[in-house]
Design brief:
single chain, about 170 residues, alpha/beta, Collagenase (Catalytic Domain), four-stranded mixed beta sheet, 4 strands
Length: about 170
């Protein structure tokens, strides 16, 4: 099957006036999203990554998670998973497919560039590093990982370090 290469990162309408400011981060975010999927054994996949502002993320967080505050990243998985996607696929899961039927549709990731900038400053990262970290974090959620339980959080953090460490020479955030 041919590898699907579609544009993964979009910039939300509310950031339209600042679009040029964030366009340079799209390629690194796409590269890290592809790497995250490849390390989970996924070659043909589709995901939508949307850069938004705090107001947009705040509304999503309130409407879908009943949390009345902005957050850094929100993921909406297309597949209802109780285990990592790679494991579920081996066990026969029929995943949600892209609209063309040629790739597994993972879901949507919304990233607040406002929160990413704040966190980059707080953690001593560049904005690109923080956006890449949040992309990986969102990708892992779409692929069935979570951090509710301490043991799961350790697994997810290790995966984040592995993905980021292979793409970037230094690891961002713990």
């Amino acid at each position: 099957m041919k590898l699907v290469k579609r544009k993964l990162v979009q910039i939300e309408e509310g950031l339209r006036l600042r679009k040029k400011e964030f366009t340079c981060y799209c390629r690194p975010m796409e590269r890290i999203a592809r790497r995250a999927a490849e390390l989970e054994g996924l070659q043909n996949f589709e995901v939508q990554i949307i850069l938004a502002d705090n107001d947009f993320i705040h509304q999503l967080n309130r409407d879908y998670r009943q949390v009345d505050a902005p957050t850094d990243v929100i993921s909406f998985p297309a597949n209802d998973l109780e285990k990592p996607l790679a494991e579920a696929l081996q066990e026969g899961l029929q995943p949600e497919m892209s609209e063309y039927g040629d790739a597994i549709f993972l879901g949507e990731i919304y990233i607040s560039v406002d929160r990413a900038q704040e966190q980059a400053e707080e953690y001593g990262n560049t904005l690109e590093e923080e956006l890449c970290f949040l992309t990986v974090h969102g990708m892992l959620h779409l692929m069935g990982y979570d951090h509710i339980e301490a043991a799961d959080e350790q697994i997810m953090r290790a995966k984040q370090r592995e993905i980021l460490g292979r793409v970037q020479q230094k690891t961002v955030k713990n």
